[in-house]
UniProtKB/TrEMBL annotation:
Top-rank taxon: Bacteria
Annotated Gene Ontology cellular component terms: voltage-gated potassium channel complex
Subcellular location: Membrane
Single GO biological process annotation from the record: action potential
Listed transmembrane segments: 74-96, 111-129, 136-160
Native source species: Synechococcus elongatus PCC 11801
InterPro entries, per the entry: K_chnl_dom, VG_K_chnl, Volt_channel_dom_sf
This protein's record includes keyword Ribonucleoprotein: no
GO molecular function: voltage-gated potassium channel activity
Protein name, as recorded: Potassium channel family protein
Membrane topology recorded in Swiss-Prot or TrEMBL: Multi-pass membrane protein
Keyword Transcription regulation carried by entry: no
Potassium channel domain: residues covered: 84-158
Length: 168
């Protein structure tokens, strides 16, 4: 559904989506109290119902668009891969550094280091001291760049294909 300002024929829009106009009427306590004496409160309930229906219609549109986006970009698969990379690296770093590195005291420290490393922030509060930990860090850096680049590329490809389809 297109909004009113994008509709080519405004009259046809209101014939088809008449409830949009009713549902857009603001209902506050003052209006509710004024209408109560006139027994028009039933209409106010109907307007609230129409507003809820409008919300549901728009929510369905957003859900359908999100499903198309997720299907065309494989974003769910990429996010799953990213989660696996993060968890594996955190567990590996914890296993390699826990009794050797004085900065690693818990699995949370390893998880923190993994997120900081994969996003290339690198605060320096936790860093690998073993050779195996440094090799893991190199693999994580490369894997993080590849994973997050895939997410960016998927979103950009979807935006370009969406832009092409609307232009044609």
């Amino acid at each position: 559904m297109r909004p009113l300002f994008l509709a080519e024929n405004k009259t046809l829009f209101f014939r088809k989506y008449w409830w949009e106009l009713l549902a857009s009427i603001p209902i506050n306590d003052l209006l509710f109290q004024a209408l109560r004496g006139l027994r028009i409160v039933r209409i106010v309930r109907l307007l609230r119902l129409l507003r809820f229906i409008r919300f549901l219609v728009r929510f369905r549109i957003v859900l359908e668009a999100s499903a198309r986006f997720a299907e065309k970009t494989y974003l769910l698969y990429i996010a799953t891969l990213a989660a696996i990379v993060v968890m594996s690296a955190a567990l590996g770093f914890y296993y390699l550094e826990v009794n050797v590195n004085e900065n690693v005291n818990s699995l949370w420290d390893s998880f923190w280091w993994t997120i900081v490393t994969i996003t290339t922030v690198g605060y320096g509060d936790i860093y690998p001291v073993t050779t195996a930990g440094r090799i893991l860090a190199i693999a994580l850096m490369l894997g993080g760049i590849a994973t997050f680049s895939s997410i960016t590329a998927a979103i950009a490809a979807y935006a370009i294909s969406k832009n092409k389809s609307t232009a044609e």
